[in-house]
From TrEMBL:
Active site, renumbered: C240
Subcellular location(s) of the protein: Periplasm
Aminoacyl-tRNA synthetase is among the record's keywords: no
Molecular-function GO terms, alphabetical: electron transfer activity; heme binding; metal ion binding; oxidoreductase activity, acting on a sulfur group of donors, cytochrome as acceptor; transferase activity
Binding site for heme c 1: C79, C115
Gene: soxA
GO annotation (BP), single: sulfur oxidation
Naturally occurring in which organism (per UniProt): Cupriavidus pauculus
The keyword Repressor belongs to this UniProt entry's keyword annotation: no
GO cellular component: cytochrome complex; periplasmic space
Protein name listed in UniProt: SoxAX cytochrome complex subunit A
Keywords: Electron transport, Heme, Iron, Metal-binding, Periplasm, Signal, Transferase, Transport
């Protein structure tokens, strides 16, 4: 698969070094007379041609996936992400989806929590603790998500609305996308339903069109050069809800799954190319 990057290995140190160089570049950004964000991003991508630091997250996530853990001391290798127990290849490209055993539509992060509870015996609180890393505090969830998402690299997004539950969750996501509120009376659609719109030099994708939804959806999770961390789609949506001045949803909430379902379905047919790299 041409999109499949080389597996992490001896090159990790080189990656870490280029990541540090790229981070230094970002730090220097405000003082440089500069082109558009897209041009800057093209430069980081060139610098990081040797490898995306997200590969470190993927490798750590694979280890976590295979390592016995929790009160039951079993690995996640028997977790069913929708394509059968233990199948990771291509699973992310078909999520969110309806899971009969849970009786609901789940996105990757809800499903991971489900497996950590049912297979490993963790409590829900333990399985959903620390979903977003902060300085000095890494997140197992971000690592697991990076690994599973990477297992769909090169695969076309193929989210189906084949059950009534999936149709309902998609319709809910659509409703939330257009729902205006908060101090600014913004909806997702205010910023993301128009072609060619920009905010502070950042291009805002039109998430209603296949091309915009694909470009956005197929590139998360992403290593954020400005933050030195891999961020998940869940985190991206948090950040947008915050910009919208909406209340912060609970981690793994059905609101996020509904929005993810809406975006993923709109991105169907796009080739998954994450974890990617973003400013
Ligand atoms: C006030 C404007 C604003 C609102 C409202 C908003 N966003 Fe965003 N969104 C942004 C900005 C700014 C970015 C970052 C663009 C960049 O960095 O290139 C972004 C990025 C995104 C991305 C990633 C795009 C990519 O290509 O990486 C997604 C997906 C997204 N928003 C979804 C949503 C959803 C869903 C909602 C509603 C819950 C929403 N946004 C509400 C401003 C907004």
């Amino acid at each position: 698969m041409q999109n499949h990057r080389r597996r992490p290995g001896a090159a990790l140190l080189a990656i870490a070094a280029t990541a540090a160089a790229a981070a230094a570049m970002v730090a220097a950004l405000p003082v440089q007379a500069q082109g558009s964000t897209a041009e800057e991003l093209a430069k980081y991508r060139q610098m990081l041609a040797e490898g995306n630091p997200a590969e470190l997250w993927e490798a750590a996530g694979e280890e976590l996936w295979k390592k016995p853990a929790g009160p039951k001391n079993v690995s996640l290798e028997q977790c069913d992400l929708g394509k059968g127990p233990g199948v990771t290849k291509g699973a992310y490209a078909e999520l969110p989806r309806y899971f009969k055993d849970a009786g609901k539509v789940m996105d990757l992060e809800q499903r991971l929590a489900w497996c950590r509870v049912t297979l490993q015996g963790l409590t829900r609180a333990q399985a959903t603790a620390n979903p977003f890393s902060s300085p000095g505090k890494s997140s197992d969830i971000e690592r697991l998500v990076s690994f599973i998402a990477g297992e769909s690299r090169g695969v076309k997004i193929n989210v189906q609305l084949s059950t009534p539950e999936e149709k309902k969750v998609y319709a809910l996501g659509q409703k939330i996308f257009f729902y205006r509120g908060g101090a600014y009376d913004f909806a997702c659609a205010t910023c993301h339903a128009v072609d060619g719109q920009r905010i502070r030099l950042q291009d805002l994708p039109n998430l209603l069109h296949a091309s915009g939804a694909q470009a956005a959806y197929t590139t998360w999770p992403a290593y954020r050069v400005s933050q030195g961390e891999v961020r998940t789609m869940q985190h991206r949506l948090y950040d947008c809800l915050r910009q919208q001045r909406f209340p912060e949803p609970d981690y793994g909430s059905d609101v996020i799954t509904a929005l993810t379902m809406f975006l993923a379905k709109n991105a169907n047919g796009g080739t998954y190319d994450g974890p990617n790299l973003k400013r």
